[in-house]
Amino acid sequence: MKTIRFIIVVLLAQFVFHKTTAQESDQLVRMAKLVIDSTHLEAYKAFLKEEIETSLRVEPGVLTLYAVSEKERPNHITILEIYKDMNAYRYHVQTPHFLKYKNGTLHMVKSLDLIETEPLMPEVKLIQRD
Question: Which CATH architecture best describes the domain 2-17+27-116?
Protein backbone atom coordinates (compact mmCIF):
# COMPACT_ATOMS: atom_id res chain seq x y z
CA MET A 1 0.00 0.00 0.00
CA LYS A 2 2.91 2.36 0.74
CA THR A 3 4.21 1.82 -2.80
CA ILE A 4 0.86 2.80 -4.28
CA ARG A 5 0.68 5.93 -2.13
CA PHE A 6 4.24 6.83 -3.09
CA ILE A 7 3.47 6.46 -6.79
CA ILE A 8 0.36 8.63 -6.50
CA VAL A 9 2.29 11.34 -4.62
CA VAL A 10 5.10 11.36 -7.19
CA LEU A 11 2.66 11.51 -10.09
CA LEU A 12 0.84 14.41 -8.49
CA ALA A 13 4.10 16.20 -7.76
CA GLN A 14 5.10 15.84 -11.40
CA PHE A 15 2.08 17.94 -12.38
CA VAL A 16 3.23 20.75 -10.10
CA PHE A 17 6.55 21.10 -11.85
CA HIS A 18 5.42 20.59 -15.42
CA LYS A 19 2.02 22.33 -15.41
CA THR A 20 0.45 19.74 -17.68
CA THR A 21 -1.54 16.57 -17.42
CA ALA A 22 -1.36 13.27 -19.22
CA GLN A 23 -4.72 13.99 -20.84
CA GLU A 24 -3.41 17.26 -22.29
CA SER A 25 -0.33 15.58 -23.77
CA ASP A 26 0.99 12.30 -25.03
CA GLN A 27 3.05 11.56 -21.93
CA LEU A 28 4.40 8.07 -21.46
CA VAL A 29 4.18 7.02 -17.80
CA ARG A 30 5.53 3.67 -16.69
CA MET A 31 7.09 1.85 -13.79
CA ALA A 32 10.12 -0.39 -13.98
CA LYS A 33 10.25 -3.00 -11.22
CA LEU A 34 13.65 -4.62 -10.86
CA VAL A 35 15.26 -7.22 -8.66
CA ILE A 36 19.00 -6.74 -8.42
CA ASP A 37 21.56 -9.37 -7.46
CA SER A 38 22.34 -8.29 -3.90
CA THR A 39 26.08 -8.87 -4.40
CA HIS A 40 26.02 -6.07 -7.02
CA LEU A 41 23.54 -3.71 -5.34
CA GLU A 42 25.94 -0.85 -4.57
CA ALA A 43 27.45 -0.95 -8.07
CA TYR A 44 23.95 -1.03 -9.58
CA LYS A 45 22.89 2.00 -7.54
CA ALA A 46 25.95 3.93 -8.75
CA PHE A 47 25.09 3.19 -12.40
CA LEU A 48 21.44 4.13 -11.78
CA LYS A 49 22.31 7.40 -10.03
CA GLU A 50 24.58 8.49 -12.89
CA GLU A 51 21.99 7.55 -15.52
CA ILE A 52 19.10 9.34 -13.82
CA GLU A 53 21.09 12.50 -13.06
CA THR A 54 22.39 12.71 -16.63
CA SER A 55 19.00 12.01 -18.20
CA LEU A 56 17.25 14.68 -16.15
CA ARG A 57 20.02 17.19 -16.85
CA VAL A 58 20.41 16.74 -20.63
CA GLU A 59 17.11 15.35 -21.93
CA PRO A 60 14.18 17.78 -21.92
CA GLY A 61 11.84 14.90 -22.86
CA VAL A 62 12.60 13.06 -19.61
CA LEU A 63 10.18 14.65 -17.15
CA THR A 64 10.65 12.31 -14.19
CA LEU A 65 12.89 9.41 -13.27
CA TYR A 66 12.50 8.55 -9.60
CA ALA A 67 13.86 5.38 -8.05
CA VAL A 68 13.08 3.79 -4.69
CA SER A 69 14.06 0.55 -2.99
CA GLU A 70 11.97 -1.44 -0.57
CA LYS A 71 13.09 -1.15 3.06
CA GLU A 72 12.74 -4.85 3.80
CA ARG A 73 14.13 -5.92 0.41
CA PRO A 74 16.62 -3.25 -0.71
CA ASN A 75 17.47 -5.13 -3.88
CA HIS A 76 13.84 -4.66 -5.07
CA ILE A 77 13.83 -1.34 -6.92
CA THR A 78 10.96 0.54 -8.55
CA ILE A 79 11.57 3.40 -10.97
CA LEU A 80 8.80 5.80 -11.92
CA GLU A 81 9.44 7.07 -15.46
CA ILE A 82 7.58 9.97 -17.10
CA TYR A 83 8.49 11.03 -20.62
CA LYS A 84 7.08 13.91 -22.64
CA ASP A 85 5.93 11.44 -25.29
CA MET A 86 6.91 8.21 -27.03
CA ASN A 87 9.53 10.01 -29.15
CA ALA A 88 11.25 11.26 -25.98
CA TYR A 89 11.33 7.69 -24.66
CA ARG A 90 12.72 6.33 -27.94
CA TYR A 91 15.41 9.00 -27.88
CA HIS A 92 16.21 8.25 -24.22
CA VAL A 93 16.88 4.54 -24.75
CA GLN A 94 19.40 5.34 -27.50
CA THR A 95 21.47 7.87 -25.53
CA PRO A 96 25.05 7.00 -24.54
CA HIS A 97 24.31 7.43 -20.82
CA PHE A 98 21.31 5.07 -20.94
CA LEU A 99 23.23 2.47 -22.96
CA LYS A 100 26.12 2.69 -20.48
CA TYR A 101 23.65 2.00 -17.64
CA LYS A 102 21.83 -0.77 -19.52
CA ASN A 103 24.95 -2.60 -20.70
CA GLY A 104 26.83 -2.05 -17.45
CA THR A 105 24.07 -3.54 -15.30
CA LEU A 106 22.83 -6.44 -17.45
CA HIS A 107 24.60 -9.01 -15.28
CA MET A 108 23.26 -7.36 -12.10
CA VAL A 109 19.54 -7.47 -12.94
CA LYS A 110 17.83 -10.70 -11.91
CA SER A 111 14.40 -9.57 -13.18
CA LEU A 112 12.82 -6.58 -14.87
CA ASP A 113 9.12 -5.87 -15.29
CA LEU A 114 8.08 -2.78 -17.28
CA ILE A 115 4.56 -1.69 -16.36
CA GLU A 116 2.66 0.72 -18.58
CA THR A 117 0.43 2.94 -16.48
CA GLU A 118 -2.47 5.32 -16.82
CA PRO A 119 -2.60 8.25 -14.38
CA LEU A 120 -5.77 7.96 -12.32
CA MET A 121 -6.30 11.67 -11.71
CA PRO A 122 -4.59 13.54 -14.55
CA GLU A 123 -6.70 16.65 -13.98
CA VAL A 124 -5.39 17.15 -10.42
CA LYS A 125 -2.96 20.02 -10.01
CA LEU A 126 -1.15 20.82 -6.80
CA ILE A 127 -0.14 24.21 -5.52
CA GLN A 128 3.62 24.67 -5.63
CA ARG A 129 4.98 25.83 -2.27
CA ASP A 130 8.32 27.43 -1.49
Answer: 2-Layer Sandwich (3.30)
